[in-house]
Design a protein that fits this description.
Layout: E1 22-26, H1 28-39, E2 44-46, H2 55-66, E3 77-79, E4 82-84, H3 97-117, E5 120-125, E6 129-133, E7 138-139, E8 150-154, H4 157-174, E9 179-184, H5 194-214, E10 218-220, H6 223-230, H7 246-260, H8 263-280, H9 289-309, H10 315-323
Helix pairs in contact: 2-3, 2-4, 4-5, 8-9, 9-10
Length: 325
């Protein structure tokens, strides 16, 4: 007897390994999985321009990066003692105007470079609701500005399809080899209300389905369905009953690995994990011969891994081990 619904995830026709580069953009759920890839040292860039929730802001951020947009005085505003940009998450806000603008331009330049190098881009849509300034500009973050500065409305599926059809063509021109995997964040936007949140998520699903039908280089990973159907219980939510718990995130990560990692990659993840754990080990006597031998062993293992896999970034671990030899 089966007492839960298991989501079938289709074969994608490609894998992720240590020779691939990934980029994750979108809602904070993208960061959960993207950061786990970073932790196991698969080359991954996570939200170079900050967390973005709605499809239009994500699209605009990509277009700005690939058009080499240069941010200046007209793109920032002062509020709450800091300089902000409506195109960026608040982590780019800064008390110094020059620093703020420099960081916006650096992030945009970095984003463009990561797009051109990536083998796979994961795009997570969080909500179909957008906030527009009175001049029609969709903002990625309201930066705690008064409500009367914005008009809030629900995107139609076709609006998302139209924007992303153009965006996918721009991405493909910049990087023909790149695959695009869409996801819908399982994090509920409860402030919208239960019914409106469901409409929002459904809008995102309809748009993604149409994009998948139109563009063979795109696919869909069912993170939303895994939480809603496989983990259909509040014990898999954090204390706010909105965000998935760490257990839920870990389970989605396991399903992600089942989908995208070959057996060889899984073996390499274990080997690299042992090196990371060894580097985090704090010995009782770091000057002992035993610990020196321990460090030498793992330096040799790092060289073996690099010879077999490629240029995995062990810079921090190598520095640590070499200090005690």
């Amino acid at each position: 007897m089966e007492f839960r619904t298991k989501i079938d995830i289709p074969t994608f026709g490609f894998e992720i390994s240590y020779v691939n580069r990934c980029i994750f953009v979108g809602s904070c759920f993208a960061e959960n999985i993207g950061n786990k890839l970073t932790a196991i040292k698969i080359p991954t860039s996570v939200n170079p321009t900050g967390i973005l929730y709605n499809p239009l802001s994500i699209c605009e951020s990509i277009k700005n990066a690939l058009s080499d947009k240069k941010y200046g005085d007209e793109d920032v505003f002062f509020s709450g003692g800091i300089w902000n940009s409506f195109d960026f998450h608040s982590r780019f806000s800064n008390p110094d105007k020059t620093t703020c603008i420099a960081n916006l331009n650096l992030a945009t330049h970095t984003f463009a470079n990561e797009i051109r190098k990536a083998d796979v881009m994961f795009v997570t849509f969080g909500t179909a609701y957008v906030y527009e300034l009175t001049d029609g500009k969709v903002v990625c973050n309201c930066h705690k500005q008064p409500e009367n500065r914005f008009v809030r409305h629900l995107l139609k599926p076709q609006e998302i399809v139209d924007a992303w059809s153009e965006c996918i063509k721009i991405l493909t021109e910049a990087n023909p080899k790149m695959r695009i995997v869409f996801t819908v964040s399982p994090i509920r936007h409860w402030r919208d209300g239960a019914h409106q949140n469901q409409i929002s998520k459904s809008t995102l699903h309809l748009a993604i389905n149409e994009l998948n039908n139109q563009f063979p280089q795109t696919a869909y990973f069912p993170a939303y369905e895994i939480v809603m159907d496989e983990l259909r219980d509040y014990r898999f939510y954090a204390a706010d009953m909105v965000h998935p718990s760490e257990t839920a995130v870990q389970y989605i990560w396991e399903r992600f690995g089942e989908t995208f990692f070959s057996e060889k990659t899984k073996t390499n993840i274990v080997r690299i994990g042992k090196v990371i754990v060894a580097a985090n080990h704090r010995p009782t006597n770091p000057q002992s011969d035993a610990y020196k031998a321990f460090c030498a062993h793992y330096l040799a293992e790092i060289e073996r891994i690099k010879a077999e896999i490629g240029d995995v970034d062990f810079h921090d671990e190598e520095d640590l081990f070499q200090r005690f030899i």
